[in-house]
Write a structure and sequence with these properties.
This protein is about 30% helix and about 35% strand. The protein has about 140 residues and is an alpha+beta fold. Helix 1 crosses helix 2 and helix 1 packs across helix 3. It is elongated, with a radius of gyration of 17 Å.
Length: about 140
């Protein structure tokens, strides 16, 4: 896997990945000299984690024919007070909405993602404690 960032000015960059060819803006908060023009690098780590485990879980739930109407993965990461401001604790919340979604199926899908499939989670787990929470919302309730 290859990725790069190209500098534009100040703290503004464009990130790209050779495999997919997609690009995205990276920037910094004005308080540290940025122009607020894009994702912060640590935000991308959190988004990548959410996307990795989310893709696993929804794929498994679809194979299990669970009636999911909406699905969201929220990542909350606590940051160290001092530099380097690394993640000190991560909470992943899986929000599943549907009619008759089985909790056991969701728990199994999350478990498989967390222990077998999600490489981002496996990598980050070596550096920071990660907890998960499952919320199932009955559609129409």
């Amino acid at each position: 896997m290859d990725a790069k960032v190209t500098w534009h000015a100040g703290l503004s960059f464009t990130g790209s990945a050779a495999g997919s060819g997609f690009t995205l803006p990276l920037g910094a908060d004005p308080a540290v000299g940025g122009l607020n023009e894009g994702f912060r690098p640590l935000e991308l780590l959190a988004v990548g984690l959410a996307g990795c485990t989310g893709m696993d879980v929804i794929s498994i739930l679809e194979k299990k024919r669970q009636p999911v109407a909406a699905f969201e993965v929220r990542v909350h990461a606590d940051l160290a007070a001092e530099h380097p401001r690394v993640f000190t604790k991560v909470l992943i919340e899986y929000m599943v909405t549907g009619t008759g979604v089985e909790r056991e199926a969701v728990e199994r899908a999350v478990g498989l993602s967390e222990t077998k499939y999600c490489s981002a989670l496996a990598m980050l787990r070596t550096a920071v404690p990660i907890e998960s929470k499952i919320t199932i919302v009955e559609q129409g309730a």
